[in-house]
Design brief:
The chain is α/β, with parallel strands linked by helices and 168 residues long. The chain has a domain of 96 residues: FAD/NAD(P)-binding domain (3-Layer(bba) Sandwich), CATH 3.50.50. Helix content is 21%, strand content 27%. It has 4 helices and 10 strands. Strands 3-2-1-7 form a 4-stranded parallel sheet, with helices on one face. Strands 4-5-6 form a 3-stranded antiparallel sheet, with no helix packed on it. It has a 3-stranded antiparallel sheet with strand order 8-9-10, with no helix packed on it. The chain is elongated.
């Protein structure tokens, strides 16, 4: 049973590994290498699993069609580079991994009701803002209070200072 991986990510490789353990025989990918989204470090364990189970990895090949014939299926493989390069083979079944499509129904429904019609203002999101300059702070802890002549005040006149909970 072949697996056609048109996505090149982890989901296709996990399915291919399960298929290989169950007796799968071929992985087909239109890419220059199988599973380009997986990355070099994770590529090795998958390649090892395929080699241990004698799985044939076919790259630069696209699944053109699958049609029913008698009690089985006939898969047609071809190349993006030449129309003459086609391979037909009988298979029991074909697993196809094309990736996922987002379910954005709620977004589409709410978009006309938004102020900016769903657009974000990237200037505001990524704007670099410098923090406002502050006056140097007193090393003592400030406590705001009402102006009163009886209370000791900070030299600046608007705060009283506490040091270890005692008015200074």
């Amino acid at each position: 049973m072949p697996l056609y991986d048109d996505n090149g990510a982890y989901s296709g490789m996990m399915a291919a590994e399960l298929i290989a353990r169950g007796g799968g025989e071929q992985i087909v990918s239109p890419e220059r290498m199988f599973a380009p989204e997986v990355g070099g470090m994770n590529h090795v364990p998958y390649a090892t699993a395929f080699a241990e189970h004698n799985v044939r990895v076919t790259i630069n090949t696209r699944l053109k069609s699958v049609r029913r014939e008698c009690n089985g299926l006939v898969a047609t493989l071809g190349s993006d580079f030449s129309d003459k390069a086609t391979i037909k083979g009988r298979v029991a079944q074909v697993v196809v991994e094309h990736g996922t499509v987002p379910m954005d129904d709620l977004y589409r429904e709410l978009k006309p009701l938004s102020r900016k019609l769903g657009a974000s203002i990237t200037r505001r999101c990524f704007a670099v803002r410098t923090p406002p300059r502050r006056k140097p702070r007193c090393p003592l802890r400030h406590v705001p209070h009402r102006r009163c002549r009886r209370q000791p005040q900070h030299p600046r006149g608007h705060l009283r200072c506490l040091r270890d909970g005692v008015l200074v």
